[in-house]
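Lab notebook page, bench 4
Experiment: in silico fold of construct C2
Operator: M.H.
Input chain length: 498 residues
Purpose: comparison with the prior construct
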Amino acid sequence: MTDTLNRPADGYHRPTWNEAVSQALPPKLQVESTRRWVGRTPLIVLLALLSVLSLRLSNTAFIDEALYINAGHDYLKHWLTGDGVETYGDSFPGVPFVYPVFAAVLDTIGGLLLVRGFSLLCVLAATILVYRTLAYLGYRSEGILAATVFALTGPVVFAGALATFDALVIAMLAAAVWTGVQTDWISAVATGIILGLVPVMKYSGAIFIPVVLVVVFLASPRWRTALVGVIAVAVPGAAWLAWSDQIGAGVTSLTDRSVLSPHSTDELVAWLVLDIGILILIALVGGLLLARRGPGHALVALALFGGGLALPAAQLVLGEGFSFEKHLAYSALFLAPLAGYALAKLSRSTWKLLPVVVLLSTTLLFGVSRSDAMYNSWVSVQTVVDVIEDDARPGVYISSAADSLKYHLRDRPEIIWETTFSLYPQGEGAIRVAVEDQRFQSVILRSASTGEPDQDAGQAVLLQALRDSAYYELTATMPAGAHSDTDMWLVFTKKEAE
């Protein structure tokens, strides 16, 4: 089904805006390089805007960021010194010693800023690849509009400022689509390898493999599709043979676990509407318009729209709020080409660019506000770090924010961190015994609800045990939430022996 997705050649070539601008320049500037740079200007401006939007976001390490980087450092230490390492396989969304180790190397060189900077580079690369893919197929205007609506979406801006697996996987998926629409065998091999690595990096990324294969099938000869498919299956298969224990534990944890963060359907739908509601509507229109061009185009529209809604639909069914908004960046990647197609069609209507400008401006406003809300959804641990730094005593510390605190206090090897998420499931008796036995040098909790009933119940028991104990005292209280007078950090410290 070669060239099904390519734009058909028209008899008349209407000059593009960049050609018109180039022709309006002085004669000495009307050279090929000038036309190229004029044509690239919108993309360059877009990339600069996305960079500013992501770099403006600031907070201490998110629990996932801290967990991955800490694990990476543990693996590096294990490989270099032979020290034991915790088994992370059942708590990670991908192979635990690939991205985390790379993130730890970046962290060693440039700290959290560099690790987050790598995520931004991945999102910028994905934006370029969205444009390049559509431009290669002959849809240059659609490409720049698709790249714009993708880059301005809140979850994408958020992913570009977060040091997790997601930005890299999004870039890999975008690269797989770009190489997938090429026609030579080298690009087919590259597509298969990249696509096969996606579920290795993030297990849930396997859900997008059929979407990319549909695009490859419609854009190139069938032998390329077969080659891509074989390699895309062989790569994760080889990874399974090499690391079956870690991958098996992670996949089992992903598919056979209780909901980590229960949320009502109304809450999840509200997030969906606020984060990508406009994008979904525009993409739906684009999909319907594209489907009118024939069965092949209808199939790719269905694949892109279905791929864009796959993860949020699954989480809506489960009532799972964990990483819900973060996963909407994947939705944006597959919905953006359809939205770009719709916006390009709309820009050629009677009112020309006015409705397109309005829609993109609205997308930008939502993108700014929603990315800011997502980035401030976790509480900064900086005040707690400052308190501990002032009087750091060796021993075991326990907190619901243990991973983040461990990351920011990694230069304090005398402190051993444990998480309340491991203590609470042991039951009320075990919690009280831990306090009576003075197991912890310090206990750091938040007074606000965790949002999970089981965790709240465990925290209530721990707080009461600490207040009743003759061995612990409340040594510090600091505001945790900027917009709440009741959300406080509570630091309990073991009393010194008299």
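Observations: The first helix runs from residue 17 to 24. The radius of gyration is 25 Å.
Next step: discuss at group meeting.
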